[in-house]
Hints:
Layout: E1 2-11, E2 17-27, E3 32-36, H1 43-51, E4 58-63, E5 66-67, H2 73-83, E6 84-87, H3 99-109, H4 115-127, H5 143-155, E7 161-165, H6 173-190, E8 193-197, H7 201-205, E9 209-214, E10 217-220
Parallel strand pairs: 3-8, 3-9, 6-7, 7-8
Antiparallel strand pairs: 1-2, 1-4, 4-5, 9-10
Helix pairs in contact: 3-4, 3-5, 4-5
Amino acid sequence: MIELEAVGKSFGGSAPRRLFSDVSLTVAPGEYVAIVGASGIGKSTLLNIIAGLERPDAGSVVVCDIDFSGRDDDALTTLRRTRMGFVFQAFHVLPYLSVGENVGLPLALQNRRGAPEDARVAALLDAVGLGDRAASRPAELSGGELQRVAIARALVHRPALVLADEPTGNLDPPSAARVIALLRETIRQNGAAGVLATHSRSAAASADRVYRLAPDGLHVAQGGDVE
């Protein structure tokens, strides 16, 4: 589902700063991996590269059997819309849509509308503890509730790949545990692949494999090696 080979990324102009290099990773359908590391090391950037939101400076990215090097931005947008679910740190919940409309947006973008889709939205809102907030506006929700809306939206269209950037960062421990369980269950049921970037020890512990991102690539994280 994901094949990264020697991926590198730098920022800056005439004197670029190397963020990381030589990142290689393979994630198969049904696998769920966590990426940990110090703040600023580039975990969010790496997820953006896997999603095709940013281009690497070096290496190759193949996701869902599609080599990103041969695809333009429109093709990558279509791939994200149909095959990926992304939980952003900043939520990106649309303020002019209701909670239910936000969760159902990936389905609407694929022209998938009707009773089964409505039931799917309702089921996911129930799963994240927001079954009674479908008609609410985002401005009426707390940060933790908005995080749960974003998670439900990322899963509603049963994506082949789920990318989650600090999905439990704004959640209390019970809500965090419920969200992580939902991510794992959805990934396994759908035969999807999942990549989680996190600072949370408990969230990382739920993954099949845990890697630490460093300037020279990904390393298998040792016990307690979560920053």
